[in-house]
Amino acid sequence: MNLSMEWECVMKTPVDESLCTRIRRSEQALMGHHEAVLRTYGLTMTQYTVLLALSREGGMSGAQLARSCGVTQQSMSSVLTNMEGKGLIRRESSPVHAKVQIATLSPEGQALLDRAYQEVAVLEEALTDAFTPSEHAMLCTLLERATAVLIRQTRNTTTPPAP
Fold first, then answer.
1. CB 64 within 8 A of CB 25
2. Is 105 within 8 Å of 51 (Cβ atoms)?
3. Average pLDDT of the chain?
4. pLDDT digits (tens, 9 = 90+) for 29-40
5. At what angle do helices 19-39 and 107-129 cross, to 10 degrees?
6. Which parts of 15-59 are beta strand (E)?
7. Contact between 38 and 48 (Cβ < 8 Å)
8. Confidence tier at 87 by pLDDT (50, 70, 90)
9. Rounded distance, CA 64 to CA 59, Å?
10. To 10 degrees, what angle do helices 62-69 and 73-85 make?
11. Backbone phi, psi, residue 11, to 5°
12. pTM score, two decimals?
């Protein structure tokens, strides 16, 4: 199929029916739910993700957490300072690199994460219950495939064209 025919096919699909629109709408609904739940605990999505990452991985540097959360190191530095001020994390110098700070969960941070996670898990359960086991497995497979395409296409657009 040539480019003009492909464009015609894309343009014939109403925006409400396009896969990208549906994926985006699902992502917005998911984030909206999580943000509403987390707001009741005084957490942002990034702060929650930091708590979750530290709970799963143990101590991490700001750079590691920034990559894990998909934010810049500068943004993460601000997030960590705020979280340390709230007593949710502790930071200590790395035994390997004196200038690197390693963040760990404080008992207060773990307790807050445990409470918030219980509410976030309610949505996971509701979504799981909305599908039969085979539908759930198929949806997970399809979402993984869609994610792989999105990642591949993003890499393709960030690669400069050959001269």
1. no
2. yes
3. 88
4. 999 999 999 999
5. 140
6. none
7. yes
8. very high
9. 10
10. 110
11. -70, -25
12. 0.75
Which run of H or E residues covers position 80?
A: helix 73-85
Average pLDDT over every residue of 61-89: 95
Q: What does the alpha-carbon distance between residue 126 and residue 136 come to, in Å, rounded to a whole number?
A: 12
- Bridge partner residues of 89 (DSSP): 105
- DSSP one-letter code for 18: S
CA distance 50 to 79: 9
pLDDT digits (tens, 9 = 90+) for 1-53: 555 555 555 556 566 678 999 999 999 999 999 999 999 999 999 999 999 99
Place of tokens 């343009």: 11
Q: What Å distances lie between residue 58 and 88, 102, 106, 134, CA to CA? A: 14, 10, 11, 34
Residue 142 in tokens: 């399809």
Partners of 105 in the beta sheet? 89
Question: Cα separation of 5 and 93, whole Å?
Answer: 59
Neighbour count for residue 94 (Cβ, 10 Å): 13
